[in-house]
Amino acid sequence: MFETKLTLVGTVISEVRLTHTRTNEVPVANFSIATTARTFNREKGGWVDGNSLHLRVSCWRRLGENVAASLHRGDPVLVSGNLYSRSYEASDGTRRWSYEVEATTVGPDLSRGTATFQRRPSPQAEPGAPATVLALGGADPEPAVPQSEAA
Questions:
Q1: Given its phi and psi angles, is residue 9 left (phi above 0), alpha (psi -120 to 50 degrees) or beta?
Q2: The pTM is what?
Q3: pLDDT in single tens digits along all 151 residues of the chain
Q4: Which residues are within 8 A (CB) of 146 and not within 5 positions of it... i.e. 6 or more apart?
Q5: Cβ proximity of 110 and 98 under 8 Å
Q6: Torsion angle defined by CA atoms of residues 78, 80, 86 and 91, in that order, rounded to the nearest 10 degrees
Q7: Alpha-carbon distance 34 to 38, whole Å?
Q8: 82: closest CA among 59, 101, 98?
Q9: What CA–CA distances, in Å, run from 29 to 25, 36, 42, 62, 125?
Q10: For residue 10, what are the CA distances in angstroms to 27, 67, 68, 79, 94?
Q11: Residue 58 burial by CB count (10 A; 0-12/13-18/19+): exposed, middle or buried?
Q12: Main-chain dihedrals φ then ψ at residue 31, nearest 5 degrees
């Protein structure tokens, strides 16, 4: 299958809407993003906005739930995923196209602000079970030491 992968840097321009599919209740979050080219105009001595691109973004399952809990209209954001086009017939009978990004990764744009990350527990993890820390370089994972047992 042909996939067009891209990464966008932009601003959330709609509130995030979390819904669930009718058949199997899979969560999906949708929002729109705008990305605008900026260039330095020497004659004006400052930055000016260029053309804008507005795209709809869909985030499925856990990513959708996390996006709905984290992002709001006006937030600077990075979106990475696959670009899809869909054709449809408008009410006036003309053929139209829409474009959508199915996100694989979404995060705040830290060049425009700060963020605090809060890890959600894995759905498979048992409540109260110690977290597993994975080290880079092929080392075996070691269980985290509960604070009550720390020296």
A1: beta
A2: 0.71
A3: 567 899 999 999 999 999 999 999 999 999 999 998 888 889 988 988 889 999 999 999 999 999 999 999 999 999 999 999 989 999 999 999 999 999 999 999 999 989 888 888 776 655 555 554 444 444 444 444 444 454 4
A4: 130
A5: no
A6: -10
A7: 13
A8: 101
A9: 13, 23, 41, 10, 24
A10: 24, 15, 17, 8, 30
A11: middle
A12: -155, 170
- Tokens found for residue 59: 């985030």
The candidate with the shortest Cα–Cα distance to 131, out of 140, 141, 139, is 141
Q: Tokens 């959600």 belong to which residue?
A: 120
